[in-house]
Amino acid sequence: MTECQMLIDGAWTAAASGRTFLSRNPTTGEDWAILPDADAADVDRAVRAADAAFHAAAWHRTTATARGKLLRRLGDLVAANAAELAELETRDNGKLIRETRGQLAYLPEFFYYAAGLADKLEGSTLPIDKPDMLVFTVPAPVGVVAAIIPWNSPLYLTAIKLAPALAAGNTLVVKPSEHASASILRFAALVKEAGFPDGVVNVVTGLGGGAGAALTSHPLVRRVAFTGGPQTARHVIRATAENFAKLSLELGGKSANIVFDDADLEGAVNGAVAGIYAASGQSCVAGSRLLVQAGIYDRFVAALTARIARIRIGDPLDTASDMGPMATAQQLEIVETMMARAVEQGAVVLAGGRRPEGRDGWFYEPTLIACDDATLDIVQNEVFGPVAALLRFDDEAEALELANGTSYALAAGIWTKDIARGHRLARDVHAGIVWVNTYRAISAMAPIGGYGVSGYGREGGIQSVLDYTELKTVWINLSEDPMGDPFMMR
Ligand code: TXE
Q1: pLDDT by residue (tens digit) across 83-129?
Q2: pLDDT tens-place string over residues 383-427
Q3: Which of 133, 253, 338, 436 yields a CA-CA distance of 20 to 30 A from 375?
Q4: Are the C-beta atoms of residues 150 and 136 closer than 8 Å to each other?
Q5: Considering the domain 2-251+450-474, what is its CATH architecture?
């Protein structure tokens, strides 16, 4: 059993209450780590440390260029420790080691990209229409940022928040998911090693309703970056509303992967697999609705079911495995309940639809389920598991109507050789991210986020750093004018 401590004000610490909780390994179902169960008192200590660090000269007076150098050093340390971080994360959330290694190989780019932006956040001098006034704007950091992280990609989802927040000069309290905290605690040690002053980055571990709620409702938190489910997001919206804290939400989706008759069949099949079976479907951008045009439908379904049959379910630490388990027992239960309901409502299972035989742990087979009716729960609601709901369409108009027929709007995939059609769909589909003839591609330079029930705000790209700033406008009176009439607006 691994015993972990959390990081507050540069010191490794247990919860003040001494309480702990256990993290289970999804591949075996066994407990493997003991973590501090932070409560409101621990969270208060972490937020106060972050607030003090924000105002202390050691951070506040650090130049943007120096912040960039620290971020670059952190990126180098992540690169040097990538193998260990990847293995920790796979043990904690059951994600394939192939995938966590791939994510870790790219992760430093988020730090390098934000590092490069740190000293390029310029304000502007305004050509103001008032005589003898010099007016300019300055992007200023907001203060303490709370980052609430889910279990599906802890390090990636931390990096995409922490790197821009630090580049802009903020301080942070990170709250990982109670189901997968270990890799973030190891990462916190690298933050310390990189040389960030104590208190600039704090990590509190604990339960959502305890540490999470205490953090998002803390009055000293000025900005919350949340990734998780819509139900939890509603609590976070209420909590931040009380304190007028700024908020970004990334809440998953019910993304449409749309295959037209003229698509490259092999590419579209691979795109469908990448969309929904990679990460066992536990991905915010999962292409969980497969919309397939009538002319290619039978050939596509035959090719996809044949491809599904070759997917190797197994130990995520084994590089030969294609699909690991669900990250939590609760997630497996959600998948099973939603599948039972779909079958009851008349959907037809074409592949999978059950747990694989002879395995402990929380595995579920890659599943394809044909749905005639787009109003079914399985078509409308996020499963967050390896379940693709299959729908047939006749023409482009129907494809668009189906694609836009949910309350989510995170991602969409379009498979066609017709460039004009690809652009038309990209223009008209309701989604924050559109992939044409590819799927699940990410970059530090490309914003990610959605609208509707998928949330609001964007992570990644230049804007993401500005999102952690407040624009300050400064007026300087250049004249000797003693203000004239004080009862008049100038
Ligand atoms: O997420 P939660 P859960 C979706 C997916 C999944 C569902 C529930 O559909 O089935 O959400 O998953 C913290 N105040 N996604 O229950 O609860 C919690 O401790 C403040 C999509 O695991 O949203 C964790 O750190 N924080 C998603 C984080 O919120 C609270 C990824 C996310 O947990 C809190 C994960 C509270 N009251 C799930 N309650 C994506 N967009 O990728 C919990 N938390």
Answers
A1: 999 999 999 999 999 999 999 999 999 999 999 999 999 999 999 99
A2: 999 999 999 999 999 999 999 999 999 999 999 999 999 999 999
A3: 436
A4: no
A5: 3-Layer(aba) Sandwich (3.40)
Model confidence at 360, pLDDT cuts 50, 70, 90, reads confident
Ligand 1 pocket mutation, candidates 160, 179, 232, criterion most atoms within 8 A of CB: 232
Q: Which helix (H) or strand (E) holds 397?
A: helix 396-403
Collapsing DSSP to helix, strand or coil, 98 comes out as: helix
* CATH T-level fold of 256-436: Aldehyde Dehydrogenase; Chain A, domain 2 (3.40.309)
How do 408-409 and 411-415 pair as beta strands? unpaired
Interacting residues of 404 by C-beta distance below 8 A, sequence separation 6+: 428, 429, 430
Residues linked to residue 474 through DSSP beta bridges, in sequence order: 136
Span from the CA of 228 to the centroid of ligand 1 (angstroms): 4
Between residues 480 and 454, which one has the greater pLDDT? 454
Distance 232 CA to ligand 1 centre (A): 6
Q: Which of 279, 236, 239, 215 is nearest to 455 (CA)?
A: 236
From the CA of 175, how far away is ligand 1's center (Å)? Answer: 11
Contact 164, 112 (CB under 8 A): no
